[in-house]
Design brief:
alpha+beta; 4 strands; Glutathione S-transferase Yfyf (Class Pi), Chain A, domain 2
Length: about 210
């Protein structure tokens, strides 16, 4: 299997960590997002949405979107379970992963993509040009703060975000926190439970994948 990847990007990092937890070896093909390689004709043939990650199977099938790729890897190698062991656990993990995307990742992406200079004409991912909107960056930063507060409340008395085992929700939340740190949005000093959880999950060997 091949993973179209970018070492500096948050979305493919989630897949790399997921695969590392399962000890699945993926051939990584680097896509240079900073130079706009994802917008070129060659990569458009691979993914017309012009984003990574893309998982290419041995039969040529291509799977885009982080959650869909991880679903495939979960089926490909069921152990260790990262997406739930029972119907309730699977639904809870999926729910929390969606909350993390909606309240954390999208907020951070707004703050990032509407403020960094190299994305001046690409405030949204994909093949179309969109101007940056400074107000969206400001709103995104505020939303990230609310996301941190929400996660801190959730983690009170809990070891992991969604279930009583490490899951894709923990991967997603950790990556979002690291993504926010790239634009100097750190964890609040008073978010004790969030800080405890972050220290634990970021110390896993897979976090460096």
């Amino acid at each position: 299997m091949k993973l179209y990847d970018c070492a500096a990007a948050s979305s493919p990092r989630r897949v790399r960590i997921f695969a590392a937890e399962k000890n699945i070896a993926l051939e990584k093909i680097a896509v240079d997002l900073a130079s706009g390689e994802q917008l070129g004709a060659d990569f458009r043939e691979i993914n017309p949405d012009c984003v990574v990650p893309v998982l290419e199977l041995d039969d040529g099938t291509r799977i885009c979107e982080v959650f869909a790729i991880c679903q495939y890897l979960e089926e490909f190698k069921p152990q260790p379970v990262l997406m739930g062991r029972t119907p309730v656990e699977r639904a809870t993990i999926s729910m929390w992963n969606a909350k993390i995307d909606q309240q954390g990742f999208f907020a951070t992406a707004d703050a990032y993509r509407n403020s960094v200079k190299w994305l001046k004409n690409h405030a949204l991912p994909g093949p179309h040009e969109f101007d940056q909107i400074p107000e969206l960056a400001e709103r995104g930063r505020k939303r990230v703060g609310l996301f941190h507060e929400m996660l801190n409340r959730r983690l009170e008395g809990r070891e992991f975000v969604a279930a009583n085992v490490y899951s894709i929700a923990d991967i997603s939340a950790m990556v979002v926190i690291d993504f926010a740190a790239t634009i100097k949005i750190g964890l609040p000093d008073d978010a004790v439970d969030l800080g405890r959880w972050y220290e634990q999950v970021s110390s896993r060997s897979s976090s460096g994948a």
